[in-house]
Amino acid sequence: MADAAGSRLLIIGGAERRGTTILARFVELAGGPDAHIVVIAAASAVPGELEADYAAAFTGLGAGTVRALRLTTREDAGQPSALAALEQATAVFFTGGDQYRITTLLGGTPVDSLLQTLVADGRLVLAGTSAGAAMMSGTMILGGNAPGVTTTSVRTGPGLEFLPGVLIDMHFAERGRLNRLLSAVAMYPHEVGVGIDEDTAILARQGAFQVLGSGSVTVVDAGAASDIRVPADGPIAIAGARIHVLPAGYTFHLKDREWGRAA
Amino acid sequence: MADAAGSRLLIIGGAERRGTTILARFVELAGGPDAHIVVIAAASAVPGELEADYAAAFTGLGAGTVRALRLTTREDAGQPSALAALEQATAVFFTGGDQYRITTLLGGTPVDSLLQTLVADGRLVLAGTSAGAAMMSGTMILGGNAPGVTTTSVRTGPGLEFLPGVLIDMHFAERGRLNRLLSAVAMYPHEVGVGIDEDTAILARQGAFQVLGSGSVTVVDAGAASDIRVPADGPIAIAGARIHVLPAGYTFHLKDREWGRAA
Q1: Is residue A4 situated within a structural domain?
Q2: What class of enzyme is it (chains A, B) (predicted)?
Q3: Option in A216, A220, A239 nearest B149 (CB)
Q4: What is the ipTM of this complex?
Q5: Are A245 and B227 a contacting pair at CB < 8 A?
Q6: Is residue B4 situated within a structural domain?
Q7: Residue A228's domain is classified under what CATH number?
């Protein structure tokens, strides 16, 4: 579990445009010409394509060094060469794919442990898009697309907790996912629901995040609700929750669950 | 504009099951064996089918008398026979179809005026499903399905205002319409956004409504927001709005915008 004062997390809702805002910011945070970026496509069944795609994008944006770290087994995630690659990195980027490919391959491995330490110590910037974003949450949303707000509208599992206390969903507006985010925060209102649109990201630092990109971040705070009822069967009730739809220029403080505007 | 103390409005999100909860309640409110129900399928290009469908449903639920009032021109909506049919009715039911077929055919006609009076005086129960529900709002949502919360994500127009101060959307969870409801209430936060799921309804009386049926009613109160910014282009910001997801058993008071539970 990271989220120490020094951690810098860039969490992207998927389908970010190449060569512009969000990825440009990532390269800048990574150090620009001094960047050593490691791309991990462990979420994907076709990692080669994504590795090449992002390497081209980051190089085009002026990143000094970009390399792929191919992890296909849990054994790979314990190799000294993998750990050495991370030690040299100024930034790590997780691509999209399937979020539990990431947790299954990396959860509890030496690569996972080292990443937690490097992120918490502020020694690298951790970024991820789509599945690579979801896995950063305390709780990740795995699936569920049934209409309505019910216990069966969402499936969740423990994320790698780089950003604890947050329940992240992605491709949010594009796939109409409010139902499942509401379902999840009704069951777990101690976590803040954060739905990130495509080509949109949050940059989380020091207990707050700011919004970047072309879409919005929808924050659902069911902790504010005065009544929540979750029947085993049938629709969930949530009365008095708060919702924020925040585009670029807005910030959100996770501890006091309050929005703000970037300076 | 109705919504006087005596008005009773049953506003259904579409696709209500025949022969059960919502329609049974409607027949009961209409007077059961003493009911005189008038079905108006003006929203539909195929009114005959819907008239027969609902006549069978209401009769099956024990309604005394059911008749269709076929209105295909504005002239029809001024005929003495149409007005006489409404004068005798204990309830009127508007079917689904296209909401602006209803306003185009009836808006400002003698049928519209008489309905407003009869509803306000509590002399009949007015019900509508889907398009027949949308037209009851102060502002009706006409369309818009673009992802994201933007000025172009929603098209609105004035409803017939049987329930003023409310912005109704229907087929809500099933068609993932929160984006467009949020877009609308960001622009018009003086109106309360009410998204009604399929097979779900609100029964509005005396400034409050109660939820009926198998789904939920999502209430978005952007009046509570401390910051709203609506750019001509790009994503809308809404900070600090309230959201309620209310299944059967819950009520909502429109004036003070507060939820409650049915006694």
Answers
A1: no
A2: hydrolase
A3: A216
A4: 0.85
A5: no
A6: no
A7: 3.40.50.880
The pLDDT tens digits of the residues spanning A68-120 come to 999 999 999 999 999 999 999 999 999 999 998 999 999 999 999 999 999 99
Closest partner residue to B245 (CB to CB) among A182, A245, A249 is A182
Reported as a single tens digit per residue, the pLDDT across B229-245 is 999 888 999 999 999 99
Q: Answer whether B240 sits within 8 Å of A242, measured CB to CB.
A: yes
Residue A19 structure tokens: 């060569």
Question: B171 catalytic, yes or no?
Answer: yes
What residue has token string 């054994």?
A75
B3 inside domain? no
- Residue B175's CB is within 10 A of a number of other CB atoms, namely 17
Q: Are B254 and B208 in contact (CB under 8 A)?
A: yes
The answer, for B242 touching chain A at a CB cutoff of 8 Å, is yes
Residues A90, B130: Cα–Cα separation, whole Å: 55
Residue of B nearest to A240 (CA): B244
B81 belongs to the catalytic site: no
Cβ–Cβ under 8 Å, residues B126 and B115: yes
Q: How many domains does chain A have?
A: 1
pLDDT band for position B5 (50/70/90)?
Answer: low
Whether residue A2 lies inside any domain: the answer is: no
Predicted local distance difference test score (pLDDT) of residue A5: 58
Which residues in chain B touch residue A211, judged by CB atoms under 8 angstroms apart? none
Count of CB atoms situated within 10 Å of the CB of A43: 26
The model's confidence at residue B2, banded by pLDDT at 50, 70 and 90, is very low
Print the domain residue range for B13: 9-261
